[in-house]
Amino acid sequence: MNKLSQLCLLVAAVVCCSCQPAKVQIDGRLAAGDEKTIYLEQVSSMRQMVIDTATLDAEGNYRFVVEQVAESPSLYNLLYDGERIPLFLAAGDHLTVNSVGNIVRNYTVEGSAESELVREFYQQFVAGAQNLEAIARKLSNQELPTTEREALLKEYTEQYFAIRRDQLRFIAEHRASLAAVYAIYQRLPGDQYLADGTNDVIHYRGVAEALAESYPESPYLVMLRGDISRMEAAQRLAAEITESTIPDLELSDIYGKKIRLSSLLGKVVLLDFWSAQLGNSNVLNAELKEIYAKYCNAATPFEVYQVAVDTSKPLWISTVQEQQLPWISVSDLRGEASPAVGTYNVTKLPTSFLINKEGSIVARDIRGAELERKLQELTR
């Protein structure tokens, strides 16, 4: 399972809580691998940051003291030997986290009801995801006999849906807890949605309504409500458009000229959301420029409608000019508050949608060789 994806979409800026912050102590014993260093990671808006380290003694004991922890529980991770243990910490907590052998599958936690509840979900979910990965590795063997391949596919499918059912059951049974908030943002490898996309908002609403009673001041409640609003907006827009069209956009280019996305109907279009502030924007655009040069004059022309999710006009314009971007570059300079971001449910940057000449989305977030293969097919 991709450990870096564990909750990057879950968190808000919890350090702004108005309650009086206080210390938290975490200690315990890890009898696992040969690694002697354990890290404490704070999960904040869009990133995970190590804030402290400790050295295990000869018996595997360790201790952290965390200053200035908000009264409203917020997410932290213990990191040991490449594994993460999620914890919800609140001012005044004293947690004891122990593990023998496989750290994730065997750890125990005392001193925090929310952290204990997260453990109940997390250990089962990680074990299930690891089992799926093991089956997938077996399936990658091209010389696998047909009967064995079919058996593995059946096993994979059964385990996959069992994990999803357990996840949804946990969320429903514990919807008033922060552990349910954690669980609602976990995804199996390759998954984008919690359930089927269409009904995801139902689960989010259930947790948000229950959390409003149990943790009315939690910043996670604000985050949940924001996601619910985006899902509902996407559903309304989906109901208003036909199967052969996409939500239209009308944004201004660097010269102030308004350009409609729908004006490109008949071309193959890459709708690309990016930001001039992205550290890798130059590399990504350089790769895209090579592909654009090959297909912009194809039998069915290829065009890029690139939406900058920025607020600084000088930065956006100078970046477009310095990188000599040859395609349509537009922005409303409202950053993440842009209606375009909500319309297409953009939750990370960059995000892209490949649209065929009939105006239907045929792929999402494909780049490089994968994008070029698709363009060879669509631009004939």
Fold blueprint:
Blueprint: E1 22-31, E2 37-44, E3 47-55, E4 61-69, E5 74-80, E6 83-89, E7 94-100, H1 103-106, E8 108-110, H2 113-139, H3 146-173, H4 178-184, H5 200-214, H6 219-240, E9 250-253, E10 258-260, E11 268-274, H7 281-295, E12 302-308, H8 313-322, E13 328-331, H9 339-343, E14 351-355, E15 361-364, H10 368-378
Parallel strand pairs: 1-7, 11-12, 12-13
Antiparallel strand pairs: 1-4, 2-3, 2-5, 5-6, 7-8, 9-10, 9-13, 11-14, 14-15
Helix pairs in contact: 2-3, 2-4, 3-4, 4-5, 5-6, 7-10
List key phrases describing it.
single chain; alpha+beta; Glutaredoxin; seven-stranded mixed β-sheet; 15 strands; 38% helix
Overview of this protein structure:
This protein is α+β, with helices and mostly antiparallel strands and 380 residues long. It has two domains: 3-200, no CATH class; 250-378, Glutaredoxin (3-Layer(aba) Sandwich), CATH 3.40.30.10. The protein is 38% helix and 25% strand. It has a seven-stranded mixed sheet with strand order 10-9-13-12-11-14-15, covered by helices on one side. It has a four-stranded mixed sheet with strand order 4-1-7-8.
